Amino acid sequence: MKISKPVSSCCVPLLSGQLNHQEAEQLAAIFRVLGEPARLQILSLIAAQSTGEVCACELTEPLGLSQPTLSHHLKVMYEAGLLHKERRGTWIYYRLVPERFEVLHRVLAIPTRRPDAVHSSP
Amino acid sequence: MKISKPVSSCCVPLLSGQLNHQEAEQLAAIFRVLGEPARLQILSLIAAQSTGEVCACELTEPLGLSQPTLSHHLKVMYEAGLLHKERRGTWIYYRLVPERFEVLHRVLAIPTRRPDAVHSSP
DNA sequence: AAACCATATCGATGAATGTCAATATATAAA
DNA sequence: TTTATATATTGACATTCATCGATATGGTTT
């Protein structure tokens, strides 16, 4: 999974303006990361922890995937900036990067009403 | 692009609860649709119109894609429920389906603070 | 009817990528 | 150092899918 540079931190205008090639590619790259059931399950599993984090070793069993596959998905999300990673001894703990989801949340916000420029005709 | 059944209309808990297999697959299917630069550009192009809609014939030039490819992308988004389609004579006009983006917007909302269940230890 | 345009479908091709077995690396403990 | 466990990487394979040329379908006009 090819990960391009992070989307600019504020207000990429998916639903409120035009995207150029580069912006579209960056945004699409993040959505592609989310376009995998296993990864969404990992994310929701992390979010469901009261500690806000999860050890990689706790994932393979509930998801029914091999260890290499899990490792792969975690890497993809880490490189996409969606996950934070912290090693403690032999184990590695992952948590969400809220700012990253904030961006996506904003991107999908539908503008209440577009400032309709004097009803200009095409 | 395989499109599964639409995500339940309210509050799929990506970031606030656990997703089961089916929910994850449905959500991932939508994100997969958004994981394509050309499709994001189409969406933002529609959103940028003061009329809120765009004719399919207006897309091929600004995006630099062939007509069959454009038609393909529109179909994918239409079948994912992201676009509404209306024929007027020879032309077909597309507009966003706001409810659909509302769902995604909510899905990516980060819970302000999870009700921390009495700090139970694992 | 025919001619013309917009859109959709078909078929083929190449690229991206999810998956796992095997193996490597890293850390901790004995 | 050796052993054990957790995580990462490699290599191979199968599947998905974006893309386009060719062609079909649908609507409009003459």
Tell me what you see in this structure.
Two copies of one chain form a homodimer. By secondary structure, chain A is of the alpha+beta class. The first copy, chain A, has a single domain, classed as Winged helix-like DNA-binding domain superfamily/Winged helix DNA-binding domain (Arc Repressor Mutant, subunit A, Orthogonal Bundle), CATH 1.10.10.10. The first copy, chain A, is built from five helices and three strands. Chain A has helices spanning 21-34, 37-48, 60-63, 67-79, 98-107, and strands at 53-55, 83-88, 91-96. The first copy, chain A, has a three-stranded antiparallel β-sheet. In chain A, strand 2 (83-88) and strand 3 (91-96) form a beta hairpin. Chain A binds a DNA duplex (30 and 30 nucleotides) through residues 1-2, 36, 38, 55-57, 65-75, 87, 89-92.
Brief descriptors of the model:
homodimer; 122 residues; alpha+beta; Arc Repressor Mutant, subunit A; three-stranded antiparallel β-sheet; 5 helices; disordered C terminus; DNA-binding
Detail the topology: elements first, then pairings:
The structure is a homodimer of 122-residue chains.
Chain A: H1 21-34, H2 37-48, E1 53-55, H3 60-63, H4 67-79, E2 83-88, E3 91-96, H5 98-107
The first copy, chain A, binds a DNA duplex (30 and 30 nucleotides) through residues 1-2, 36, 38, 55-57, 65-75, 87, 89-92.
